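Today's session is about reading a structure prediction critically. Students often jump straight to the picture, but the first step is always the sequence itself: look for stretches that repeat, for charged clusters, for runs of hydrophobic residues. Only then move on to the predicted structure, which in these notes is written as discrete structure tokens rather than atom positions. Here is the chain we will use throughout the hour.
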Amino acid sequence: MSDVEPAAGISGWTLCSGGGCEGVTGSAHLLTTGDRSVLVDAGLFQGTGEDAANAEPWPFDPRAIDAVVLTHAHLDHVGRLPRLWADGYRGHVFATAATIAVAGVVLRDAARIQAEDLARARRRARRAGGKAPPARPPYRDADVDAVLAQARPVAFHRRFTVCRGVQGTLGRAGHVLGAAWLALDGAGGRVLVSGDLGDADGPLHPPPEPPPTTDALLLESTYADAHHRDWAATLREFGEVVRHTLERGGNVLIPTFALERTQAVLNALQTLEATGVIARCRVVLDAPMGERMTELYRRFPQTLRASVAERLARGEDPFRPEHLEIARGGGMARALHAARGVVIIAGAGMLTGGRILQHLRVHLPHPRNTLVFVGYQAEGTLGREIADGARRVRLSGQTVPVAAEVLAVPGFSAHADAPALDAWWQASGARVVVPVHGEAHARHVLAARVAAAGRRALQARRGEPLAL
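Below is the predicted structure for this chain, in token form.
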């Protein structure tokens, strides 16, 4: 990849990324043309040691931003939105209706967790006699409510005014509920932001819609160095893992993201039971936010695959294995200490917190159990540490042996793989492509393919203006 001097830009847009350009979390991309600026996403950095990154000042003035557009409501794309408000932003927030609904759940949960984490940190500091942490979390419920009051729903394919001199269009990205790609048209021409593009073969969402022709493209690169198995093969692989674990009297632990992955896992388990691949077993969903997200999936069927929407219209529930139990309190981990033959679904997907940690402390030391990763494990997370082969890990101050079988079923990914990404950027006709939302290797191999096709591949760096 190579940078360019500002005068060498092609589209007339300038990018200043506040995150998500050199990794897979913290997406926040400020796009400027003339005297207009639009922030696309305002995500949280996730992973070990990222608290400092989330506390750093923005590389741009929030008060000077004309508008915010959200591609979807994963925490790494919306988690700093209330902080943007707390730091002075007062404009509108545009997104699909489904994304706005999901963001409400995600952000209120994040505010609660931040308050709880800060309270724990204060208690530890008092006991240790150390320096007290900040008096308040990065944002509070009032900030969430205030910024959500600025949300304006936008329909797919309906051109809308983002701010004076800039028009926007959202298309279906097929990633999660309400997910969109964004085309921005202004004085500098058109810039296209992919958001996160879904796997065309996924069980719940239709494939991403083709992109419009554009001058420049910000393209996610999460799996730009990988090929996914098709969904039928993934379902077989997942079924074998669950069946073998249950047959030996073990439990299956599945850390999931509340949005999309929980619903995909529930749907897969129901399908495997219905086809006789696995026996009807006890399935425990110990994820309050996952339950709320599942209700939103039922509320917005128009964003799902036609086959799933039709089942919902008939009154069927595609997200309910026969013996599903919803954990209503925080004591489910204790209740399952001696359980055998149970599938346990809990957050968080990268083991960065949540109820899954309680289950891991109990079940990781036993070789009869299986920990199944069904989502991406970012660098610096506990999930990545275990996926990379750690035999002992620290959980809430305790050292826990990893004796359970650890497997990954990457076909559950809600991200497009390398061939799909290549087809998408080629269809856009973009002369300039900026790989974002990917680790270094994935971004570099995507850039090499872009350059080999005679297009320009640029590397964005956090806080550094880049002419497109």
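Discussion point for the tutorial: The first strand starts at residue 14 and ends at 19.
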